[in-house]
Amino acid sequence: MRMLRRANKELRTLIFVAWLLGYVAFLLSIRRMWTGKHIRSPLVRSLFMSMVTENDTGTADQEVGMCCPDLLGESVRPLFVQSHLDSDTKAFLKRSQEKSSWLFTQLYHSLVSTVLGPMVSRTSINGFLGRGSMFVFSADQFQRLLRIVPDWTAERLLDLGAGDGGVTEVMGVHFQQVYATEVSPPMKWHLQRRNFT
């Protein structure tokens, strides 16, 4: 009986060591996928990139893509407005980077997205979770884009597919009446909370 127990224990140890070696061999065989570009899950990719860039200085040193207007057609060139990395944009990027490092929040969002994904649109899931807020331009960038002064106003604004109203709010300060449309019920709630018609 004692010999049987000892043989059983040795067999379990042998199976565990074989499994461990097999697992390590598997990880080594797919190590080329550890670059991050092959990771499909946004959560896992975010966690991986967070680990890889843990010692980076952050968004303040990020370069902004510059466009060469000389490559644009003659009819488009005078309409082009080069954007820049202003304080509002930096603040948005900093908040986004901070939120992406909230491990338990990201796990919760991933779980809810997985459960609701087959039944609800991604926009509605984002609205339910209070995420997915768009940043298209800052107030200063909007004014530069339209070539308007800060106190310029017009009568009405209609934002089609307004999402949670973040972009609508940036534009809305220049209009007397603001209307927004949205299909997603959770995003409609966000728009109502911001008192958009």
From TrEMBL:
Recorded coiled-coil stretches: none
UniProt keyword list: Membrane, Transmembrane, Transmembrane helix
UniProt cross-references to Pfam families, sorted A to Z: DREV
Keyword Methyltransferase: no
Signal peptide: none
Domain of life: Eukaryota
SUPFAM superfamilies: S-adenosyl-L-methionine-dependent methyltransferases
Transmembrane segments: 12-30
Record-given protein name: Methyltransferase-like protein 9
